[in-house]
Amino acid sequence: MRNLNDYIEVVESQIGYEFQNKELLYQAFTRRSYSIEEGGENNEVLEFIGDKVLNLYVTKILMDKYGFQNDSDEFATRKYKTEGRLTNLMKRLVNKHTLSSRIEEMELEDLLYMGKGDNKQKRHQEASVKEDLFEAILGAIAIDSNWDPKSLEESVGMMLNIENLLDKNFKEEDYVTFIQEWNQKEHGEIPVYEFIDCYPKKRDPFDFGFTTTYMRNYENKKYLVKLSLSTPRGQKLYQVFSDSKSEGRRLVAKEAYDDLWKHDELWTINDECPEDLTLQNSISTLHNLAQKGYISMPEYYIPEEELYDEDGDPFWEVTCKVKSEDISWTASWDSKKQAKRYAAYLCLCEIFDLEDEYENE
């Protein structure tokens, strides 16, 4: 374990905040087990404060990025960022894995003050302990800054490295997949990428029709990758220089994705509703919505044994829950499989605001 005394400046640089009262920073790194043995305060109350600070300022950052006031001066979010998607994104940004991973990346867990038992068990390596430390640091910043909004927002953004996390909301290869799905849905065809070899004879970037703003991106790159898409604004050309074809395809797909998002030309959840929603495709449709990030993954609750009605006839009762949308439906059918399908179907009816076509069956 390292000594925090030797790393104060490093820690403050990592979290984007310089403490006036260094004792608060020490407290943030002090586990309860240490304070029991050595006396003094621990970081538990700071964890509580930091948890609230984190949720508030991540919400603000998301709304600054995805929210706007419409023509009627009402507050709205980009079409692509539905409430369900924002809820899922929020969960990913503030969950235990994200916070503990960021503490590891900043290499702060080795600076914790812990009791002998915790040290022996290497508790500093546990995800929950690193999560607690992340929140405690934010709590300490809140107290030290007298709840200064600017300091708190900057520290939340810097500690989370939030722009990078938001950029990774899609896995790198998913930009390519998304653009392919978008183009197939809009135009019924797979988009075509054009790869132009810049070697072996180095060509002038002006040969590609670029202005001087592209000069710095051209230096020592092997390929020019182009992608042309038909959008509601007309035909749009996206192009990047890259060291490899795979990287170039990802980068140009991301350029296209960012442009479509900027102009509100991406899909909403209603665009995902199949033309013919049935029991047979209900489970797969609900699962696809979750995979694309519109909703949380559905959860099914299936009893171990069948039930019996007043006439003694057996039936199955299955519940489907979509927690991100606060939706829960229970369906009954004479077979377990059909009951599960019907429960998923009822959830989809609420999501898409559809009538239940099977209500009287």
TrEMBL record:
<dbReference type="Pfam" id="PF00035">
    <property type="entry name" value="dsrm"/>
</dbReference>
<comment type="similarity">
    <text>Belongs to the ribonuclease III family.</text>
</comment>
<keyword id="KW-0540">Nuclease</keyword>
<dbReference type="GO" id="GO:0006397">
    <property type="term" value="P:mRNA processing"/>
</dbReference>
<feature type="domain" description="RNase III">
    <location>
        <begin position="8"/>
        <end position="146"/>
    </location>
</feature>
<keyword id="KW-0699">rRNA-binding</keyword>
<dbReference type="GO" id="GO:0005737">
    <property type="term" value="C:cytoplasm"/>
</dbReference>
<comment type="subunit">
    <text>Homodimer.</text>
</comment>
<dbReference type="GO" id="GO:0008033">
    <property type="term" value="P:tRNA processing"/>
</dbReference>
<dbReference type="GO" id="GO:0004525">
    <property type="term" value="F:ribonuclease III activity"/>
</dbReference>
<comment type="function">
    <text>Digests double-stranded RNA. Involved in the processing of primary rRNA transcript to yield the immediate precursors to the large and small rRNAs (23S and 16S). Processes some mRNAs, and tRNAs when they are encoded in the rRNA operon. Processes pre-crRNA and tracrRNA of type II CRISPR loci if present in the organism.</text>
</comment>
<dbReference type="InterPro" id="IPR011907">
    <property type="entry name" value="RNase_III"/>
</dbReference>
<dbReference type="GO" id="GO:0019843">
    <property type="term" value="F:rRNA binding"/>
</dbReference>
<dbReference type="InterPro" id="IPR036389">
    <property type="entry name" value="RNase_III_sf"/>
</dbReference>
<keyword id="KW-0460">Magnesium</keyword>
<dbReference type="GO" id="GO:0006364">
    <property type="term" value="P:rRNA processing"/>
</dbReference>
<dbReference type="Pfam" id="PF14622">
    <property type="entry name" value="Ribonucleas_3_3"/>
</dbReference>
<keyword id="KW-0819">tRNA processing</keyword>
<keyword id="KW-0507">mRNA processing</keyword>
<keyword id="KW-0963">Cytoplasm</keyword>
<keyword id="KW-0694">RNA-binding</keyword>
<feature type="binding site">
    <location>
        <position position="132"/>
    </location>
    <ligand>
        <name>Mg(2+)</name>
    </ligand>
</feature>
<keyword id="KW-0698">rRNA processing</keyword>
<feature type="active site">
    <location>
        <position position="135"/>
    </location>
</feature>
<feature type="binding site">
    <location>
        <position position="135"/>
    </location>
    <ligand>
        <name>Mg(2+)</name>
    </ligand>
</feature>
<keyword id="KW-0479">Metal-binding</keyword>
<dbReference type="InterPro" id="IPR000999">
    <property type="entry name" value="RNase_III_dom"/>
</dbReference>
<dbReference type="GO" id="GO:0046872">
    <property type="term" value="F:metal ion binding"/>
</dbReference>
<feature type="active site">
    <location>
        <position position="51"/>
    </location>
</feature>
<keyword id="KW-0378">Hydrolase</keyword>
<protein>
    <recommendedName>
        <fullName>Ribonuclease 3</fullName>
        <ecNumber>3.1.26.3</ecNumber>
    </recommendedName>
</protein>
<keyword id="KW-0255">Endonuclease</keyword>
<feature type="domain" description="DRBM">
    <location>
        <begin position="281"/>
        <end position="353"/>
    </location>
</feature>
<feature type="binding site">
    <location>
        <position position="47"/>
    </location>
    <ligand>
        <name>Mg(2+)</name>
    </ligand>
</feature>
<dbReference type="InterPro" id="IPR014720">
    <property type="entry name" value="dsRBD_dom"/>
</dbReference>
